[in-house]
Amino acid sequence: MKQLLIVSTLAVLATACGQPAANPAPPATSASAPTSASAKPEPAGSGKPEAAGTGVPKTNGQFAGGDPNGAPIKISYASPAVADIPFFAAVTYDFFKQEHLNVTMVQLAANIAVTALSKGETDFGDSPSNTIAGATRGLPMKVVYSAWSRTPWTIYGKADVKSLADLKGRNLGTNLAGSSPYIYMQAGLKKAGLSERDLKIFSSPGTQVTFTQLIAGQVDAAVLSPPFDAQAEAAGFHEVMFLGDLLQLPYVGLGANTNVLSTKRPQAVATIRALVEANKWLKGHIPEGAELIERYSGAPPDIARKSAQRMIPLLSDTGEIVPEGVQQALDIQAEETHTKVDQKPADVVDWGPLHEALGK
After folding, report:
1. pLDDT confidence tier of residue 279, bands split at 50, 70 and 90
2. What is the domain count for the chain?
3. Higher model confidence: residue 58 or residue 104?
4. What SS3 class is residue 319?
5. Beta-strand runs (E) in 164-306
6. C-beta neighbour count of 69 within 10 angstroms
7. Same domain for 265 and 339?
8. Same domain? 210 vs 330
C-alpha cells in the first residue's frame, strides 16, 4: 500500500534543522551588475547565510534580491537544490538587478506552488512539470523557460539495496505525486519490472526533505538530485539507479501565470533574460557556481564543487523544451489522472517571451 507522508514544508524544515528557522534581511546588492558572460562580478552581499543542522540556510524558505526599487516579482521554488542555481546566480550576481526587478524567492511544496501560481499569488514557479500538470487541468499557466537540457534524478540507498528489486516491501522517498522526481521514479520502477504497490512510497514537499528522511533512516532509498546525491554518498549511501536518461521531461525553469504574460509582459521578458544571462555566466564560472551551491544549499565545499562540475555543463543553451519532452509530460499526466488530455505541446508552452529575451 502506498504510504504518503505529506507534511508542512516549514514545519519539516524547522525540524530538519533542529531549531526554528530565522528570517534574516535580504543581502545587500553590489554596486554594479555583470555585463557579459565573461565578466566576473562580485557577489551581492558578503559572507554566506547562517546554516544549522543539515546545512539549510536559515532563511525561512525565502530569499530576495535585485533592484529594491524595481518591479516586484515573486517566484516559488521547491528546494534549495543545485537545480535552482540560475536563480541563485541571478540574485547574488545582480542579473535581476540589471533588469530592474525586485525578486523574492519563496519555498513552497509542489501542490501549494501550483495553487499559488494559478491564483496569481506568485508570478512564476520554478517547475515546468508542475506547470504543465496545472495547465492540463485548465489552470491559467504556461511554461516559458527551461533552464536545463536534461535532468539529474537518481536513486541513492542503503548498502544492502543493490537494485530496485531489493526495495520490495521497503520504503522509498521522493517528492509529491505528479512532481518530476516522482515521475522519474515511476519510470525507474517500470524499467525494473516493479510497480508502486511493490514498495512503500514516502512523499515529501521537496528533495531537501527527502534527503533528510534518508539520512534519518526513515526510508531505505530516496530519489535525489545534486547536491543531495553527493551528500548522501558522503554519508555512506550509494547510487542504486540513475533515472535521468529514462525520460525527456522538463526539469527546472519558469512556469508563468498567463495573466503575468499579458499584463506584466516586459517584466516577464526581463525575468527570463536575467536567467538566460545567469546561465551563460555560470558556464564560464564553475568555481563561483560551487560557491553559490555551498551558500544556498548548505552543502560542504567538496560536495558543492562536485555538484557544480557535474551540473553546470547541463544548463540549457536554448531555454526551450523539446516537443517530445512536453508530450511525455502530457502523456504521463493523462495516465496519472486517468483522464483524457486534449492539450498539445504548443498549448502548454509559450516561447514568445523567451524569444523576445533572446532578441529573436
Report:
1. very high
2. 2
3. 104
4. coil
5. 171-175, 200-204, 221-224, 238-242, 253-257
6. 7
7. yes
8. no
